[in-house]
Amino acid sequence: MTEKITAKDINEQDKALLSDLQDALANCMKCGNCMEVCPVYKEVGKEAAVARGKLSLMEGVLKGSIPLSAAFDAAMSKCVSCKACTAKCPCGVPADELILRGRQAAVKARGLHPIKKKVFALLKNRHLFDFSLRMAGIFGPLSFKKIPGKMAALARFPMPGMDYKRVTAPFASTPLRSQYPEVIKVDRPTMRVGFFTGCTINYIYTDVGQSVINVLKENNIEVTMPSMQHCCGTPVYMSGDVDSAKILAKHNIETFDSYNFDYIVSACGSCTEAFRIEFPHLFHDDPKMSAMTEKLAKKTYEISEFLIDIVKIDKTKLGPVNATVTMHDPCHMARGIKVTKQPREVLKSIPGLHFVEMKAPDRCCGSGGSFSLGNYELSRKINDKKIADIASTNADTVVTSCGTCRMHLTDGLFQNNMNQDALHVIQLLDRSYKAGHQK
Amino acid sequence: MEKHHINALKEIVGEENVLTSVEDLYCYSYDATPGHAHMPDAVVSPANTAETSKILKLANENHIPVYTRGSGTNLSAGCVPTKGGIVLLMTRLNKILEVDLENLVAVAEPGVIVADLNKEIASLGLIYPPDPGTVATATLGGTVAENAGGLRGLKYGVSKHYVMGLEVVLANGDIMNTGGKNVKDVSGYDMTKLFTGSEGTLCVITKIISKLVPAPEAKKAMMAIFKDLDNAGKAVSAIIAAKIIPATLEIMDNATIRTVEDYAKVGLPLDAEAVLLIEVDGNPIVVEKEAEKVMEALKANHADLVQIAKDDAERDKLWAARRAALPALAKLRPTTYVEDATVPRNKVPDFLREVSSIAKRHNVTIGTFGHAGDGNMHPTIVCDIRIPEEMERVYQAMDEMFKAAIALGGTLSGEHGIGLGKLPWMEQQHGLVTMNAMRSIKRALDPNLILNPGKLVGEC
Ligand SMILES: Cc1cc2nc3c(=O)[nH]c(=O)nc-3n(C[C@H](O)[C@H](O)[C@H](O)COP(=O)(O)OP(=O)(O)OC[C@H]3O[C@@H](n4cnc5c(N)ncnc54)[C@H](O)[C@@H]3O)c2cc1C
Ligand code: SF4
Ligand code: SF4
Ligand code: SF4
């Protein structure tokens, strides 16, 4: 099983990638505080599963004590990137980011692998291919090699987790962006925003996208969904493929920049984080891209955050929604962009809605991007804890702000024979506006 | 270790509970102590006492070293498998077996996390008081084996005051029970106390019978800032002399104050020589009275500023500075040594002054905070273990620091244990006679020297 690639085989470039990590790794004092919060460690119970162990393994690779093996790769992939360790760390070690770097190193080493070589060759000649071909080229072999033939048609879409037993939402017959004109006009618009849909909302949860559009229209905002936008690249970035992630990021940045929007909104913590934190990070040493990226980062908002902080919605227009609702904070909302108050404020402004807080609402739901692709059983176990917490609130609806979370929660509710609805926060607000019109 | 030993271990605990890949072994080569690491040959996690016994029998017959491990958060290299062999991971034994409300006793397995025990009994109005900084991660077995203390040590004592009985497996695999639920028990040598704090060198603990106490109904926190260290010392003595035993009586020195202020901006004056954090707890009426007396003692000893928390939010604010002490110091430099040299309560100011002059002399950064009430100090040295020249100075400073503690009638370790880290100074503190007596005990219980060999009493 162990791949024959050892530390010796890594070329100079890979070594450079890891060695600038040395200082960051040295800051871990091995106190083990991360054991308290790591959802993966709680299930697996082995040191290699917790941040302290993963960072040590990276140190081991750097020192040449252990090989850049398949087992190292597997250890790095056992992380849902929930940032709980980073939030807990007394030394301020950004463990989740470092683990990602470890994964990138493993990917680089695996670059010697034939499939990987082919992808890189493709990318090098990228001008010869149109974008969709690149998508297939990048995502096909990397993210979907474990998926059986009949799913092959979906391979151009980087969604995690297509386990046989698993409930995933069906792909929409018409993607969101094909349901609307590019620019959705309103009379006397107060502002012009660009809606970054992300893959999940465009291809699967079009209902969320419709709600976003409805709610923005209610507030006299002109919405544009740039037709050239594409996947934010987070899935490939998370699986360690920085080069491909950069191509996707650059494409999105240039696309959105060309419209000169007042604001950019998205309905997902991870997507917002991509624009606000990851893109600037990817291009920090590229002066030309960096300026453009920073400018976009400053005007990007998550939808609840946008409605509460910028639009300051008029709550008198809202009608009653009779539901008992609890909320799951996606990791990338809670610890990524740190937006937890605004979605609650949205819910609390809806008349008739009874909000109940669940235990540890910001504990990861176990989906973690492509994590659940290779680790479904484990991610199911983490999710079962979340489902139990939802059950104990007696809520009839659980809302969240991330498509991946919603999908994983839906799956979990189904597997545990529960019939609560799993929705996006914005869908309840949309309902409330509709009820307001009937008043 | 040979292949057939590994196979025999797999037979005992099952294939999936024996780790041998180089990646997994690497992850058990260290604990929370800087500068110590060594690879084991196998990591074995038993499910129960019977399996533990079989593993030890096998190890003993084949002279394979065994390093027992809980969560690996100790600060004395107690878990580092310096001679290879087996890391015996106790975290699968994680059940709370019984909460006996009539005797106020809990019976639990060693892998239970201390905070989980407290969560379980909180609804019953009870607490298990030993609360090291790592309550949320450390195991009950690890805290008993280290005789861990914590912030509430002054009033509530440390682990040994709560352990009433144990089930342990001896080096040869024999299973032995000590103590029990009796509040009074003088039958024979007190083996329970001997094993508590034995750091995995005498036995493997497989069950713990521990005392529980009623949770205090009320708490009151106070903070005092002193421009003069001696006044802080006198205030501590005055509080105790007023016959008040606070649950918490913490001190931070000037180096720590400056670091905390720089990091957390909690509003501490940079020229303060000491900050005291005091918390009294118990019956609400008594708590009010005691808090009053504490405030009087603080003012009488010329505290430059005193504050008392009116509610939970204010309590949190007062605690924020103390909570920030370690994170603030740890962020200064890559390597952090949290030491725990301890001196008699009235010697705390002398010791703090010693430490800051040692730090200056060797040009080393040391911030000291700790439990002023029980004299248990945490001189925290921050440095970079990758710079040999700096480490030379750090070791010299450590050496002088430990010697200073001993000279003041203190001890090397108040709660973190000896392990390997403080071994070089053991004879200096105890003398040869005591060391030999300890080594005789070790040899009597572990003739083949397989349990955590080389630690606590050194080679024997
Ligand atoms: C940031 C930080 C703060 C800390 N604060 C405190 C504090 O305030 N007070 C304090 O006392 N300590 C403190 N510690 C030290 C540490 O948390 C304690 O020593 C704790 O008791 C260790 O528990 P553990 O489960 O991690 O044990 P481990 O580190 O796994 O083991 C500790 C020792 O016990 C032995 N051992 C473990 N389990 C068993 C068993 N079942 N049978 C026999 N021997 C066993 C091991 O061989 C080892 O020698 C702190 C550590 C850190 C990193
Ligand atoms: S909490 Fe931070 S310093 Fe502590 S072990 Fe985890 S990563 Fe390292
Ligand atoms: S990011 Fe989450 S899953 Fe990954 S190591 Fe940290 S706590 Fe564990
Ligand atoms: S799916 Fe949701 S909870 Fe899970 S990792 Fe992503 S954001 Fe976190």
TrEMBL record, chain A:
Binds 2 [4Fe-4S] clusters. Pfam families: CCG, Fer4_8. GO terms for molecular function: 4 iron, 4 sulfur cluster binding; glycolate dehydrogenase activity; metal ion binding. It catalyses: glycolate + A = glyoxylate + AH2; (R)-lactate + A = pyruvate + AH2. The keyword Iron applies. Residues 18-49, 68-99 form the 4Fe-4S ferredoxin-type domain. Keywords: 4Fe-4S, Electron transport, Iron, Iron-sulfur, Metal-binding, Repeat, Transport. It comes from the Bacteria. InterPro entries: 4Fe4S_Fe-S-bd (IPR017896), 4Fe4S_Fe_S_CS (IPR017900), Cys_rich_dom (IPR004017), Glc_ox_4Fe-4S (IPR012257), Helical_ferredxn (IPR009051). Its EC number is 1.1.99.14. Its cofactor is [4Fe-4S] cluster. Component of a complex that catalyzes the oxidation of glycolate to glyoxylate. PANTHER family: GLYCOLATE OXIDASE IRON-SULFUR SUBUNIT. This is Glycolate oxidase iron-sulfur subunit. It comes from Pelosinus fermentans JBW45.
TrEMBL record, chain B:
It is an enzyme of class 1 (oxidoreductase). The keyword Flavoprotein applies. Pfam families: FAD-oxidase_C, FAD_binding_4. The keyword Nucleotide-binding does not apply. Keywords: FAD, Flavoprotein, Oxidoreductase. It comes from the Bacteria. This is D-lactate dehydrogenase (Cytochrome). It comes from Pelosinus fermentans JBW45.
